[in-house]
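Known limitations

Structure tokens in this collection are predictions and should be treated as such. Users comparing against experimental data should check residue numbering before alignment. To illustrate the layout, the record for Thiamine pyrophosphate-binding protein is reproduced below. The input appears on top and the generated tokens appear beneath it.
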Amino acid sequence: MTDTEHLDGGDAAVAALTAAGADHIFCASGSEWAPVWESLARHHRDGLPCPGYLDLTHETVAVGMATGYGLITRRPQGVLLHAAPGLLQGSMAVHGALLAGVPMVVASSESATYGDGPGKDPGGQWYRNLSIVGGPHGVASPFTKWSNEAASVHTLPTMITRAAELAWRAPAGPAYLNIPLEILLEEWDGREAKPVVPPGSTHSSPEEADAVAQLIREAVNPVIVTETSGRESGGWEALVAFAEAWNIPVVEPDSAVCGNFPRTHPLHAGSDIGPWMDEADLILLVNCRAPFYPPSRRPSKARIVVIDEVPQRPHITYQVLFADRYLEGNVANSLRQLAKRAKDLDAAAVTARRAAQEERHAGERAAIAAAEAKAAEAAGGIDPVMVAATLRRLLDGEDAIVVDETITHSRIVKRHLRNDAPDSYFYVQGGLGQGMAVALGVKLAARERPVVLTIGDGAFTYNPVIPSYDASRAYELPLLIVVFNNRVYKSMNLNHRRFYPDGAAAGTGEWLGTDLHRLPRLASFAEPFGMHTETVDAPDALAPALERALKAVAEGTTAVVDVLVTR
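Generated tokens:
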């Protein structure tokens, strides 16, 4: 630092994010962040450690990339948005991060003086149109874990530390901090920021684990249901060991938002909890937020054990678990404790349920094979099953990660991709329009692995496509984007038909709010960025097109394959 340079709030923010262990600052540029940019420039000039900086051109891209990065690393990153409007623009993605359980520190700004105070002029835009009544921290409160204002440069570093620590603890999610521009510009004394350490773990007691183990030992027909255990560090491996030790089938319902258990494993029992509602005598809900729908649909005879670090999720408006017993604390640890207790089992009961599950699993394998054979023989175009099955074959052995933002095709994607490794499948949370950014963040965290985004044409049009392609090219983050393009908002159309099967639209064929035929060729948006593009409408052309696209991705270029599917 030169003799004429002074530390300010920008330096305080960078120091605190560095101490928090943030690898990156994801920034959708706003004029208030000049102090942070100046601090980063000094760090770069002087060779000082600081987080990497990503200059992004849309708030959804900034938050979504931090979400994707956090899905892989499970550590909080920094996100800078512009004022209240930038926070509002990024709010859907912040809410998605909350639902996805991804820690991050999100910050935006306001003015505290509107030009009437001493010091540097913040600019008239704050007085005229950037500020919001009550401050942006009030706006952020409903879709973050914690929301507050940094009222002094002297407390700013500790407030950032606190936000990171709160974001990291269960249930992980975004914390928000409003940092007024005047605080960023204020001189700072340079006090050292305390490094943030990983959260300590909480464990269920041995006595609690013993009681649950006894319930499992007494059960004849138990089942595990999980939505997000694979999102926990070590959760995938611990669930596999637990299920194998007790020979218990595992159901991943349609509400599962990540890969939790190998779909190729003989104990994988598909995605339908329905058959178990009357048959199971013990249901083990492992990181399962909302297992029953409607919520009042109670299993007829099963006792219910909930295994979850925070079973009652505070961000879920209405949650019904019907728990008979809770096993709280770190999920992977709880599962490992239970696996060790798999002793003195009823051999006849285990043999019977193993045989039943083998039959069930064989039936599912046969059904998948039959569906794929039917799709391959179908006339008149490309069935979406064929797209998912072709992707599975091409990605076999590649250690790929699939980020999914399909709606009507999501069951097909999960069922036919059959992911069998940790951190290999994520479903985008919250509203549509975040998939590209989340996939880019995943790629940033796992540069050595191929990343595939499966997305519907409707979801594609919600995404900030141009800013996403810009980030892909600027930061060398090649993706394979596969569009399941049926030229319609199918889920909306299906609901219209379900609610009004004999209505006016059914009689006249006037289905409003669903037609996407008018959109241009979706792959063409990538052409100005020099990316690989394909549009496919014939079954024979599908595999060669995807092979060319994967080759382009391996060579460092994002590839977009727009597949015109039949349904």
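For this record: The chain has 21 helices and 17 strands. The mean pLDDT is 95. Please report discrepancies through the issue tracker.
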